[in-house]
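Q: Could you fold this chain for me?
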Amino acid sequence: MPDTQLHCQVSLDLAVSPAPGAALLFGEGTTMPLWLWLALEPEEVRALEAALIGHIQSPLFPSRLGDGVAAGDDAALLHFASRFAPLAGRYAEGWPLVLAAARVVAERGGEYSRQAALTAIEALQHKLHAGARGLSGGPEALRRFVLGARLAADLWLRFMPAPEIGLSILTRLGVLREVPDPIPQAEPTTPAAPALAAPGIRVLGRFEPPNDRSEWARYDPLTQPMPLRQVPRDANARLAALALAAPAFVAPLAEIRRTLALAAHAGRPSPRLRPLLLVGPPGVGKTWFARRVAQALELPFGSLNLGGSTDNRGLQGTARGWSAATPAWPIAEMARLGAPNPVLFLDEVEKAGGQRETNGRAHDTLLAMVEPESAAGWFDECLRTTADLRHVLWIMAANETRGIAAPLLSRVSVHQVSPPPASAFDGTVAGLLAGVADSMGCAATELPALEPETREALRRSFARHRNMRRLRAQLEECLGVAAEAALANAS
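A: Sure. Below is the predicted structure, expressed as C-alpha cells.
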C-alpha cells in the first residue's frame, strides 16, 4: 500500500493547489505524481485525465498529438499514448504523459484496459531504466523509483489474467526463446499452462484489393498479428566477431550493440534501431556490411538501389487505379520476407531524384517512413490502409551526404566509413570468404585452400587499392583457379 501521508498530500493538492495539473502529472517537490499510486479513486482518475488533456492540448505542448482527445474517450487516450511513446524520450516529462494516459484507460476498466496496462508497464520500464542513474540524488529519487517498480508489478498482476498467471515472468514477457529449468520437476498432476508466444505486430490494417489479381493474397498475413523476429542470445558476440572482420565499421557496430543491450534491459525481444547512414567511397563494403548485420541478428534482409530514380515510386509504390498498382516497397518486402522487423538496405541514397511538386521526392517519402510518429501509421495509397513501419531496421548507404535533405539527415545516425587499413587484410579476407561460401551454399572450410604465395599477392594488391569489392573479385578468381587445380589433380 502507498505511504498514507504522501497519499493525503496528493489528495490535498487535488483540492487546493493553484495549479493542480502540473503537480498531478509530474509531481511537485516531495509530492509524487498521481499516476505513481497503486490505488486510485474514481475522482482521482478523472482529475488525472483532466490534467493530462489540459496539458497536451495547451499551446505549450509542441507536438500537438493531443488534438481530438476528449474526456472519457479511451480509444483516443490510448492512441495518444502509443503515438507519443516513440517521442517521449525527447521531452523532459515525456514518459509521465504516456503513463498518465495509459493509467487512466487501465483504471477505467473498459475494453482497452489490458492493452493500456501493458503500455503503462512498457513506459515504466523505460522510465525506471532512466531513473536508475539518478538514485544517488536522495531519498525522494529512491522513493519514486521504488513506487514505479511496485506500480509495474501491480499492473502486471491485476491485468494479466489466467492462464498467464501460472507462468514465469520471462516466459510471459517472451524475452527468451527458451527458459531452461535447472531443477528437475515432478510430473504435474494437472496439465501445464501453454507457453505464450511473443506479442504480435499487426503490420497492415484491413484492406480491399485494388483489383482481382491473385497477388494481393500475399499481403493478407500482414493484417494478422505477426511475431517479431527475435535476435539470438549471442548477438553481441556475433557483432564483436563482425567488428574484427570489418574494422572500418566499428562505430556503427558499437551503436547497434548499445541498442541491443538497452533492449535486453527493457525486456524487448527485438530492438528498434535508429536508422543508420553509412557514408564512404564505393567499394568499402557498405552493402556487404548490411548483409552481415542481418545475418548476425538472424533477421531477413531486403535491399533497394535508389540511384538514378526520378521519382518516389520505387519507395512509395503506385496509387490504386493504375493497372500496375503496387504497395510501398517496405510493405512488399515484409510480405515477401514474412516478418514485421526486417533489415532493409537502401543504396545510393544521395542519388535519389524527384520533384516535390510533380512526381514526388524519394527523400520526402523516406523521411515519413523513418520518423517514428508517421511510421506508426504510414498510409499506403495502393492498399488504402495504414501500415506500421516502426519495427523496420533501416540501413542506408551513400558516397557523400551532399544531396541528402537536411531533415532526413537529422533523423539518421551518420557514420563515415573509410577504406580498411592494409593491416586488416586477414580479417577482411575471412569475412569475404564467409560471404562467398554463403552465396554458394557451403561452409567456408569447404572452399579450396589458397596457396601462401596467392594470399601474399592478394595482400600486396589490397595494400594498394583497399577496395573490398575489388578484393572479393580477385578472391573469387583465385578460388576458381585453385578449384580447377584441385579437380585436375583429382583426375
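A (continued): The chain has three domains: 4-165, 231-416, 422-490.
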